[in-house]
Design brief:
Length: 261
């Protein structure tokens, strides 16, 4: 199944951009809720959109292309180097554009010229597998999850700095805790903490009898893990990686609602 990335964003002007399976991008007035413009040009579903530093918009689609749009809806660039559907777009701190695709490559683009600056091949093209998640560290270093491997990539020069392979299951989600410390979520009951710069395994958080489906960094450095059972777990990383601070569940919310009636 294709991963749908960011299909809703707020522009600096306050306008909202959205994309949909009908191949269109829409611009909305957030104050009155009206659609004020529609961008057309993609031939298949749009999976990801992002605003660019120059005020334009980039979109990636199942038609294997990345398109740049001005705010009037004119398509001003079409990038066609990827050989499969576009999964994700991110603007890096150095003002270049990062894209990932089901062709299992990541590409770094010059936003002004549309030139592809670097390519990272993260494995052979396997139909069942693709790039699951990306996180951005300082100095334009990125972390990429693919299968049971995690790649550390310097986007400034296109060099792979490290590949973390000490995982026994698929890694599908990650979060940056601080500087080079990352949390990797596997398709089982564990979250592994790594120092990406030193290639050092720091510890494991285990949630018994649960399957973790998502991971995000909360306020004050809390690691928030979501499970397929609808529960959320909050952990604080530290010397001991097993201390659960909070648990929220759908059952708890249901019971609370009953008490109010």
């Amino acid at each position: 199944m294709t991963m749908i990335d960011k299909c809703l964003q707020v522009l600096p002007s306050g306008l909202i951009i959205s994309c949909s399976p009908n191949h269109e991008i829409k611009i909305w007035d957030s104050e009155v809720g009206d659609c004020i413009n529609v961008f057309k040009g993609h031939e298949h579903r749009i999976n990801t959109i992002t605003s660019l530093p120059d005020g334009n918009i980039a979109s990636g689609s199942d038609d294997n292309t990345i398109r740049f749009w001005d705010q009037s809806g004119n398509c001003i660039k079409v990038l066609k180097d990827h050989q499969d559907i576009i999964l994700l777009l991110r603007v890096l701190p150095n003002q270049t554009l990062l894209s990932s695709s089901r062709d299992n490559t990541l590409r770094i683009w010059d936003i002004q010229t549309g030139e592809c600056l670097h390519i990272l091949q993260v494995g052979t093209k396997i139909k069942e597998e693709y790039i699951r998640d990306i996180a951005i560290l300082k100095n334009n270093i990125i972390v990429v999850t693919f299968g049971d491997s995690t790649y550390i990539w310097d986007t400034n020069n296109g060099k792979v700095l490290n590949v973390l392979k000490d995982h026994d299951k698929l890694v599908h989600s990650l979060a940056v805790i601080s500087d080079n410390i990352i949390a990797l979520c596997q398709y089982n009951d564990s979250i592994r903490i790594w120092d990406a710069a030193k290639d050092r395994y720091l510890g494991t958080i285990t949630i018994e009898n649960e399957s973790i489906c998502s991971l995000v960094l909360g306020s004050d450095g809390l690691i928030i893990a979501g499970t397929y059972n609808g529960a959320l777990y909050a952990y604080r990383p530290g010397i001991t990686f097993g201390e659960m601070l909070l648990k929220f569940s759908r059952q708890t919310a249901t019971d609370s609602d009953k008490d109010q009636h």
